[in-house]
């Protein structure tokens, strides 16, 4: 699939300046424009451009203020801003870079330089985005990693606390996985973990559900706005799904195929508790599931 064309927001109070920049860039990029700061901030939120070309001197909110506000908002602060301004003193450029711009181009502009700088910054942005997304993925299974989970549970704990809705957590662990590795080898063990991750991902389908590798052969599933019965049903579906996958495990005393044990915790977050209570409870119930003979859910 072809990559979508990058989106560039051009902000300048003088329409002819916007026109010039648009002519230089429109063959390669989708151009949006705004003639004042307020409108620019609205468009940044609504269009999520890949880059902003920003004038400084504008009536009302000036470019420095627009840039500061973009950089103060975590939802959009990664969008690179390049100032394009007739202001050319050292102090102007310094201030622009200090409020968070990635570059500073002085008017009158040179079209090839604008094109080249825009291209370079977009390339850098794409590489940064790619690295960030990889930093949240587990290298073995391709699902979310512990870092993504830690970040998400913090956010969901606060959000469900505000809305007084239950938050559920499933922790699960592959049964007798040491014996599996010993019998089939470490590579087959890795493949087994990939298959388990696949089953879990197929079965946690609500938007907002997060399946992650917690470490080793343990996985977690965070279920926002899900009560105890709902979470227990998802856990049972995980258990059945892994068993039905029928991954042979001859050494397992539980069944001739790979099985998992699961603990499920549900709570409506309060300000008094930390989110750790969820993992502690789910972990304790997982341990009980192991003691109860494995291949089962405890909630
Ligand atoms: P239980 O049913 O009580 O969970 O027994 P178990 O054998 O699964 O538990 P134990 O904690 O003793 O063993 C976990 C094993 O998981 C040991 C470790 O080598 C293996 N393991 C952890 N991470 C990986 C991995 O990324 N790949 C592979 N192949 N094995 C892993
Ligand atoms: Mg101006
Ligand atoms: Mg384990
Ligand atoms: Mg295990």
UniProtKB/TrEMBL annotation:
Modified residues (4-aspartylphosphate): 55
Catalytic activity from the UniProt record: 2 GTP = 3',3'-c-di-GMP + 2 diphosphate
Superkingdom of source: Bacteria
Xref: Pfam families: GGDEF, Response_reg
Annotated InterPro entries: CheY-like_superfamily (IPR011006), Diguanylate_Cyclase (IPR050469), GGDEF_dom (IPR000160), Nucleotide_cyclase (IPR029787), Rev_trsase/Diguanyl_cyclase (IPR043128), Sig_transdc_resp-reg_receiver (IPR001789)
CDD domains: GGDEF, REC_PA4781-like
Keywords for this protein: Phosphoprotein
Class of this enzyme: transferase
Response regulatory domain sequence ranges: 7-122
Enzyme Commission number: 2.7.7.65
Stored Gene3D superfamilies: 3.30.70.270, 3.40.50.2300
Domain GGDEF, first and last residues per copy: 165-299
Protein name listed in UniProt: diguanylate cyclase
Organism: Azospirillum picis
């Amino acid at each position: 699939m072809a990559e979508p064309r990058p989106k560039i927001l051009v902000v300048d109070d003088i329409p002819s300046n916007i026109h010039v920049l648009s002519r230089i860039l429109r063959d390669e990029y989708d151009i949006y424009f705004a003639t004042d700061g307020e409108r620019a901030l609205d468009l940044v939120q609504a269009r999520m451009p890949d880059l902003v070309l920003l004038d400084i001197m504008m009536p009302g909110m000036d470019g420095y203020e627009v840039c500061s506000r973009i950089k103060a908002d975590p939802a959009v602060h990664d969008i690179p801003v390049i100032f394009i301004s007739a202001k050319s003193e050292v102090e102007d450029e310094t201030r622009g870079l200090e409020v968070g711009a990635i570059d500073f181009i002085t008017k009158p502009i040179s079209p090839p330089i604008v094109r080249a700088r825009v291209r370079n910054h977009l390339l850098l942005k794409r590489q940064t985005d790619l690295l960030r997304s990889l930093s949240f993925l587990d290298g073995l299974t391709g699902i979310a990693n512990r870092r993504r989970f830690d970040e998400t549970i913090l956010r969901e704990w606060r959000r469900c606390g505000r809305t007084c809705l239950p938050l559920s957590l499933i922790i699960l662990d592959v049964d007798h996985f040491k014996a599996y590795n010993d019998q089939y080898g470490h590579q087959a063990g890795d493949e087994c973990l990939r298959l388990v991750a696949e089953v879990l991902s197929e079965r946690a389908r609500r938007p907002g559900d997060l399946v992650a590798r917690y470490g080793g052969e343990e996985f977690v599933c965070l279920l926002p706005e899900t009560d105890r019965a709902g979470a227990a049903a998802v856990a049972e579906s995980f258990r059945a799904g892994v068993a039905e996958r029928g991954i042979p495990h001859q050494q397992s005393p539980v069944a001739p195929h790979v099985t998992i044990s699961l603990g499920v915790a549900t709570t409506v977050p309060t300000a008094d508790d930390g989110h750790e209570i969820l993992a502690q409870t789910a972990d304790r119930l997982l341990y009980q599931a192991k003691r109860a003979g494995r291949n089962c859910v405890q909630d």
